[in-house]
Design goal:
mainly alpha, 6 helices, 2 strands, elongated, Lambda_DNA-bd_dom_sf
Length: about 110
């Protein structure tokens, strides 16, 4: 399996840190710190974002089914929206899901 940091490094070299930061939903400063081995945050969360957005990783969502890993992370970060039944169900399910990387465990 390809090292996710190498994939991140190559993507930044090809498209630039700003474009990659938009794809993985992390700031350019986080990307820079990760690439330089200085990031003090949760590398597991950054890894999940890179694998989903840049490496095509998928997860099995108990609500939606198979989906790109990055989309799962986006749903985890989304605020509660009572106007959409699927978002209500995701809001209730995500905190206890095995795919949760956002630390919202109940």
């Amino acid at each position: 399996m390809t090292d996710w940091i190498e994939v991140l490094r190559e993507a930044c070299a090809d498209r630039g840190q700003r474009a990659v930061s938009t794809e993985i939903d992390y700031s350019t400063s986080v990307i820079s710190q990760v690439l330089n081995g200085l990031y003090k945050g949760d590398l597991t969360r950054v890894q999940a974002a890179v694998e989903g957005a840049l490496m095509g990783a998928t997860v099995s969502c108990p609500v939606i089914g198979e989906m790109p890993r990055q989309r799962c992370i986006e749903y985890q970060r989304s605020p509660y929206a009572p106007t959409n039944p699927m978002r209500v169900q995701l809001f209730r399910t995500c905190p206890t899901c095995a795919n949760n990387t956002e630390g919202k465990k109940s």
